[in-house]
Amino acid sequence: YLVKNIGKICTSERAKNTAISLLPIIGWMKTYSFKEWLLNDILSGVSTGLVAVLQGLAFSLLASIPTWYGLYAAFFPVIMYFFLGTSRHISVGSFPVLSLMVGAVVTRLVPDEGLPANITAFEGLTKEEQRVLVSASLTFLVGLFQLGMGLLQVGFIVMYLSDTLISGFTTAAAVHILISQLKFVLGLTVPGFSGPLSIIYTLESVFTQITSTNIHDLVTSIVVMVMVLGVKEINDRFKSKLKVPIPIEIIMTVIACGVSYAFNFSENHGVDVVGKIPNTIESPIAPSLQVFQMAAVDAFPIAIVGFAVAFAVAKVYSVKHDYVIDGNQELIAFGASNIFGGAFKSLAASTALSRSAVQESTGGKTQVAGLLSAIIVLVVILGIGFLLEPLPKSVLGAVVIVNLKGMLMQVVTVPYLWKKDRPDCIVWVGTCLAAIFLGLDIGLAVGLGLELLTVVFRAQFPRCSVLANISGTDIYRDRKDYVNIYEPEGVKIFRIPSPIFFANIDFFRDKLKDAVGFNPLRILRKRNKAVKKMKKLLKKGELILTSVRLEGNRSSEDESNMEDLDKPTDYSDLPIQVNWSADLPANIRVPPVNIHSLILDFSAVSFLDISALKGLKAIKEFIRINVDVYIVGCDPYIIEKLRNCKFFDDEIKTSIFFLTIHDAMLFINESHPPKTVSEKVMKTFGDCTSLICSFKD
After folding, report:
1. In angstroms, rounded to a whole number, what is the distance separating the alpha carbons of residues 77 and 350?
2. What 3-state class would DSSP assign to 590?
3. 608: helix, coil or strand?
4. DSSP 158-225
5. Which pLDDT score is estimated for 697?
6. CA-CA distance, 62 to 106, in Å (whole number)?
7. What is the pLDDT of residues 612-641, one digit of tens each?
8. What pTM was computed for the model?
9. What Rg value do the Cα atoms of the chain yield, rounded?
């Protein structure tokens, strides 16, 4: 069979698609616009590279390894992700939560006090070299786990980490990071602790030595934190006016290096500084199999958390800029990146939201910006790293603490969750407390357990209702189960057969798009682009209004902000009414929409969670392209929850609810009377000479 059909199986098209799926760079490089994108990518790459240098140095402290190995995490993984990743905007490199989880394993196998673990590869190595070997081997193992999951196509596993669980977990990680940086901010010598209650032991050691605080470290840290927080607030308030955010962290780092060097903080005041940074890239090493055995249980949650955070950030930017990311390919990309980085003693790589925000907000269009940021890091490693040697570690600690603001502020969601969705609140609080006191690995497991329990509880005990036949109504069934059944013209009825929650909301949205045959968000964006283009042509006089058609010359595509294209279509200043089902002028192409009404059958939906509420807001996309949306058979409890959670607004109104499908159909038939046979015949012939638009009254 294989011999006979080898030509059908191994076609050039299939080979091409396989190559593009494994090397996404082939796909986007073909469409790369050097004229329009290269300058933006260069500016973004330089800005991101400078931030990556500082964060690499700072986050390496969390892993309890020498600072320059944090720079490797901003170089080696980025190179591999450039070829294999599907996101064009995330900045790959060190992430504080992952660095902290790596540091817990490092201090467990190579403690500050006492003998290291019995590992053959440790013979003849200093304590620092032993810790680097553990970190590199763990990173390599994390990469193997991620690569294996990607090849097995299990990227869907990230769906079981809900927004609530991730929020609680990262808040707990932020608390751990904050406590771990106190020894640098205060200039104390605190041994590393790992395992349950390690945070208590760390605080005990800090407060025992509090009288030995180095005043120079403390004052430096306070000044840096106040300045960075203040300028970051300015950046947030005036981001619409600032083309590039003020790089206050880099400015303060340069000032701190200069002051430390001028007053010789290290020798005169006992301030712990970064110290010698080798101006070379160290040779690759083979990972230790004994470390694999001792750290396998720790490596798996690190792999899951690293991928989940990166995928969540990548998904935000893919929606904003209208392109597709592949979860399985992302696993392969991060797996290969961590394997490559681990071989060169890099930290485990993921992405940091703040660094990715810099790359995107400074105009980065593709991973060319990421590649250029890696080149900046390489220049620092090989050329100017010595300038950072007098940098106090207390400054790095202060930078880390300031960057925790976003994660720590997530605690304000707890009162909201308690009022709106108590099971989600229990997941958040349980995950956070368990991760704080029992450790991040155990906390993640506890969070998953709580999350599964809430799903089981909600699915096993739904809000059941007794249904009865209402006199004079019709019965609606699945069209696939019957032969003699017709679908109402211009109406799509979509039945949701189960509760909607974080694990299936994306599935239902995809199935809904398949059912209607189009993506409403893309239709909306294309319509908005078309309207903007027609306005532009009319203004230039290149578009002529006639009684039959609009005629105009073809012009270049209008570069529009994606966020503006997601808003309702603005027909102001356009003296016509656009008939989107007819041919448009100037070779403008907008896919047709063959329905005018969409009915969502909620009769089997017994509950919604917060993630589902956010996902359901997508019905605005249908409303904005003139498709009326109706929800039928909805439980009063759900309607009340939607009202409490501010689901309704000027676009989504409470009038969309009907008791049954037939009630909704009666209303639709009044608004859109079914066409007669003669009208259908006239429409068939009329489409050939239909008016593209008509003047407004």
Report:
1. 9
2. coil
3. strand
4. GGGS-HHHHHHHHHHHHHHHHHHHHHHHHT-------STTHHHHHHHHHHHSGGG--HHHHHHHHHHH
5. 35
6. 10
7. 888 888 899 999 989 999 999 898 889 999
8. 0.77
9. 29
